[in-house]
Design brief:
The chain is an all-alpha fold and 241 residues long. 80% of the residues lie in helices and 0% in strands. It has one domain. It contains 10 helices and no strands. It starts with a helix and ends with a helix.
Length: 241
């Protein structure tokens, strides 16, 4: 373990938590833009990203537990609990280069969606749609630790207000990330080194979240999101080519 790797993980955790706090999205996506470029394997990067997400979403789930729309979350969770272990298993079997191509494609596709279609696509809040969102989100979580977009797309329509949406999606992420880490452990993806990297990186997450709270009202979240989307495209293209 190189000391510079610890510093890098802390910086990535800081940036991911800061972006999440200011713009309300993308901790996993931001993390996976950077970690795969220097971690020993793609599964190692996804595992650390899950650890980061577990910290932030568990904290928020407890804090906003009274606002969670549990009935709305159940169909998504049920579907995700099925698709996550399948996706984690396949992630363990994929060659590094193929994984990079798949992750690069996902980053480009997600960035295009956020840039051009985020406000145009609406999903009806039905149980079948919740199951589809949970299945897709679980698959992306298990493969790349980027399971947010399907959940965001569904819950923005299925919840009555912002606080209910935020509480419910944090609850969903909390359970799915803990479950994902458990499945990664079963598949032999978690080592003592990765746990140490994840715990050290949480220091960055804490600092990033604190700074994000302080500057939340002073920064233009919309412009920050566009910067992140462009970064996603660049990172995705680099992985592809």
């Amino acid at each position: 373990m190189e000391p510079l790797h610890f510093l890098y993980v802390i910086l990535v955790g800081f940036g991911a938590a800061f972006v999440q706090r200011v713009s309300g999205f993308g901790l996993g996506i931001f993390t996976m833009m950077f970690l795969p470029h220097f971690m020993p394997s793609h599964t190692a990067a996804a595992t650390i990203s899950c650890i980061f997400s577990c910290y932030t979403t568990t904290f928020n789930s407890i804090r906003y537990r009274k606002n969670v729309a549990y009935k709305t979350a159940i169909p998504m969770l049920a579907a995700a609990l099925i698709s996550i272990p399948i996706a984690v298993y396949f992630a363990a079997q994929i060659e590094a280069k193929i994984f990079e191509i798949l992750l690069g494609s996902v980053l480009v596709i997600l960035s295009v969606y956020f840039l051009f279609f985020n406000k145009k696509i609406k999903i009806k809040p039905t149980v079948p749609n919740g199951i589809v969102a949970g299945t897709l989100g679980g698959a992306l979580n298990g493969l790349f630790s980027t399971g947010g977009p399907p959940a965001v797309l569904y819950l923005t329509s299925a919840t009555p207000d912002n606080i209910t949406y935020f509480a419910t999606i944090q609850f969903y992420f909390c359970l799915t990330n803990v479950y994902s880490i458990a499945n990664r452990a079963i598949n032999g993806m978690i080592t003592a080194d990765l746990i140490l990297y994840g715990l050290v990186g949480i220091i960055g997450c804490i600092c990033g979240d604190l700074l994000g709270r302080k500057v939340f009202d002073k920064l233009d979240a919309k412009k920050l999101k566009y910067v992140i989307y462009i970064g996603m495209i660049i990172s995705g293209v680099l992985m592809l080519f």
